Please model this.
Amino acid sequence: MPACLLGTLVGAALQLQQPVLWPWPVYGVLLALGGVAWLASGWCRAWVAHRSQAAGRRWRHVGALGFAACAGAMALFALCGLRAGAYASHALSPGLEGRDLRVTGVIAAMPQVNEAGVRLRLEIESALWQGTAVALPPLVDVSWYGDAALDMAQPADASRQPPTLRAGERWEMTVRLKAPHGARNPHGFDFELWMWEQGVQATGYVRTGANDAPPVRLASTWRHPVERARQAVRDAIVARLAGRAAVGEDGPARVAGVVVALVTGDQRAIDRADWDVFRATGVAHLMSISGLHITLFAWLAALVVRRLWCRSARLCLALPAPTAALLAGVLLAGLYALFSGWGVPAQRTVLMLATIAALQLSGRRWPWPQVWLLACAVVVAVDPWALWQAGFWLSFVAVAVLFATNNIAGSAYGISAKAHFYALLREQWVVTLALTPLTLLLFGQVSLVGFAANLLAIPWVTLVVTPLALAGVLWAPLWSLAAWAVQPLAVLLQWLAAWPLAVAFVPMAPLWAGVAAVVGGALLAMRVPWAVRALALPLLLPALWWQPARPVPGQFELLAADIGQGNAVLVRTATHALLYDAGPRFSRESDAGHRVLVPLLRALGERVDLLMLSHRDSDHTGGAAAVLAQQPQAALTGSIEAAHELQVLRPATPCVAGQRWDWDGVAFEVLHPAAGDGAGTARPALATHTNAASCVLRIATQGPAPAVALLAGDIEQVQEQALVAGAAPLAADVMLVPHHGSKTSSSAPFLDAVQPRTALVQAGYRNRFGHPAPEVLGRYQERQIRVVESARCGAATWRSAQPLQVRCEREAGQRYWQHHMAP
Model:
């Protein structure tokens, strides 16, 4: 059995490595071969039982283990492939992307309200395109924007926002859909896998224009009653706590999102600034429905049921109290997880609890490694893609460490209150030691105050805040008590997060170094002789001191990040770094800096020396504030006016043609704008047209055959002609396509002057501007210039030492669940 269980984990892990899915008959053959291998393992076990020769028994026993492992691996590999193929068959047809579709569907989850509008998850019942029925994925996510969504600088008008929407309602509306398409950056979040796991195969928005048929509410159905109850509870909490204007920012209104998250599992209710504090102090896992909450809820429920059950002799005769308590604990934990949204972490926890309960009820007493392996195998069999989720590894590694050390901790301190405190202290310390290397491997950061913060927060949130928040469902005033209970903890966490060394960031190490560090952390956590623990130090060093490879002196590297519709290019030399533009702002609460660039810079261990903002448009400056906050040493330059909001964070020097500097043998030169041509009080000529003021930066190696890169911002044909007429040194090996490939740029004379081998286009997938324009792509194709689009390539890496090669993140780490654009 252990060999088979281990094989299932290996089989699932191998199947998740597939770049494309195989035809279903191949998986059918593998499944049949898995059955044959299982029969062969049984034959080997039977042979061992009836033979007495030691050598033959040993080899047959090894054969039985091998066949059992192969059976588990092939069976789960095949089952995963068949499930993935069946799921992929419902994907959105590329021909329906961007079309106006009239759909009828039921709201399948409680709507998510934000400053731009409402996010809906629709269960599609029917769809029409130009009066013809079409097939859509069963589940889609759409946004219903308010009128202020397209102009984030203006406050939202409540009278023009979408109506109040509730789970279970049936609506008819016109939508435009596209396949789930997320950013692909080194060490970045896999949005497409996240959507795949949730069963969502299309995203889009509701059409509410003057020429569109208006959305119509058809009925309120009985479907999705749990989501309706969750929404009712969420709205009641918000109305009681956040709706009290007299409370103020530091009162219960400030922590209403935490109470909502603890009761309903709605993590989006928590403000982004609060999430930053929780992550910095290592307690983010406590501020929503986590495996810890569900496990403790199951334990408390079982304890209460057992004590009540023991009071009835008739009940005890019908069913023993321990059995009733075990069943009730698992059942109530499942109901709690269901009410909290049935998220992937909650599903894993309930499956693990149910597996262990079933093992106990069967009367088997397996050793803990086999119990742990069984729980892992059950979770992976139900959700194979959990292997790619950080929460899976954090939870199961923590459980394994506690399993391995629990018998020692329990016998070392006794049963008094003081002993329980010491046991809790040791368990928290053991888990911290074991999970710190894993956290570094998965996130590239670790909270240095996490041990102290969790030591106080775990019992307080688990035993005080969460019970009060849940009891508020029965008596609403308890929600106010829960909110007041969160406040002293929030003050403490903010104080800890403000420490200069509260969080340690290290570059993301390769997998081998991370695995070695995890093994080292486990050795440190185990109660073994110090001579054995000393072996952990060399295992930890590669991950702690890892430094990504940098260009050699005299060479440089470009990394065009995948940030949607906007520009953000990281230029690295041997010891310096320049960030050209900082990407767009997605909403008032989200931007490319916070979501993409800051995590990317931390993962690479990069210190930015200069942030150059080509011009003031929000798709180039949207993430600048987040980058500057994380990179306090970075200087700021660009074509932004003196009154720009970024000038408050960091004084900016204008970029002017003729500026030159040298980093590590690499020459940097600004080619545009000329003095008096840019935006700002000193250069008013082009202030009304910010694209014309874009900084154009030339980067070149030295020598007789230099490698050259040209970053052109959003200049248009007038500025291109001026550069050509002024005999600027435009020839380059790689060029950032001006204005994202707009039809107003990339003129023929300009392309003839630059003559790039490679052109990088940073534009969002199916963006509303149509970038890059077909006629512009035609001009590049006529000149046999390779065009690399971020929507197809993901993050693109170009190196001056290999000017003919471009590394695309989507191609380097391709998986079958990721979106593949048609040619």
The CA atoms of residues 158 and 234 lie 20 Å apart. The radius of gyration is 29 Å. The chain has 28 helices and 27 strands.
